[in-house]
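Researcher: Please predict.
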Amino acid sequence: MDRNTIIGVLLIMGLLIVWQWYMAPSQEEIARQNQQRDSLALLNKKTTEKVPSADTTQSTAVSPQSTGADSAGTIQQQANFGPFAAAATGSEQLTTLENDLFAITFTNKGGRIKEVVLKKYKKQIEDANGKITSVDLKLLEDDKNKFEYFLPIPQLPKGGVNTGDLYFRPMKTPNGIAFRADVGDGKYIEQTYTLSPETYKIDYAIHMAGLQDILAPNTSEISLNWVNYLDRIEINTNYERNYSTVYYKIAEDDPTYCSCTADDTEELTDSPLRWVSHVNQFFNSTFIAESQKFKGAKLETKLLAEKGVDLKS
């Protein structure tokens, strides 16, 4: 190797040494790189330790959300129903009782009558071809019907609770059924229905226990909202429509009725009533005050579309 070659090799090695020294990271950069490396290593370790199995992941993802939703629902029910919040949750249960004249189906939603089937009568329906068929004759069966009390309770958004929104606890009695919505501590509202043989009459009673400190102060009365959609029963609905309406009897007067041929409203605020009746042409559903009279009522009848399934409400 001649002298020029040796000098060239030495110059190249010198340049490499200078380049490495110039490009080498400072102590601060080395420390920063080491810190980043340690942080990444720690993160990977934590991630590895905390990744659960597929089943556990599903459980931890769904459970807190479900709990939150349930809690939110409970809080909302408490806000809307107050002491009756527990009775605002449930599922509908149907119970059927019968005698030799009718079969009556009750629902625990609202603790009311859902349907009555008259055993000794049939309803005739006519199809598009003029064929007439006999089917069961039912009363009070429309899903839009209501039979509910308004319980005035202070501080609730609606000023109280409708019993139609509550799920009552059904309890069989010797000749009927009782529906109770509990508040707790022996406080409740209860509706009782009693059937007797060979009569269409149903004995009905409503009882409240311990609610004086729950209802609005000085509450001496509650309101009943009874809505009944009168179904078409006769083939000739023209006659039936003209004879279907609300009949009623003021305590010391003769029975009378709302208009049969037009919408009508009767305000009987201070007129004690003995009974109120929703009347088809030949059948009726009547609410009769036994020992005490109803203090008053607002009675209303509305005509419905001629081609609809119902005559009036």
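Model: The chain has a mean pLDDT of 84.
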